[in-house]
Fold this protein.
Amino acid sequence: MTIDVTDAIFKINPNAEFVIRENNINQITWLNGTTPISKADIEAQFTAVEFDTAMEDLRTKRNRLLSDTDHYALSDQTLSDDMRTYRQSLRDITNGLTTVADVEAVVFPTKPTS
């Protein structure tokens, strides 16, 4: 996975103004009086950026799976206990995750037949 240096910079200073060439940490030009951030400080954010990206991917997949079963939860439908448990398991799937390894180890529950 390639870390986006821009994301790391914005974790430190969301208002930073800069230009970066080819996502190269050595090719940053700071603009409009933005205080330069050291390479070491930017690199220190890489783990957090990687985790944020992994969580975003996990949530996208989880949301798609929830969306695929939304029709079971409509007011004119009776939601089975298995489907209710499945949907709650999907909503809870991000709980307690603190590392990329945790995210990569997630096992999605099996969708019930109804």
The chain has two domains: 5-43, 51-104. DSSP finds five helices and two strands in the chain. The two ends are 37 Å apart (CA to CA). Strands lie at 18-20, 28-30.
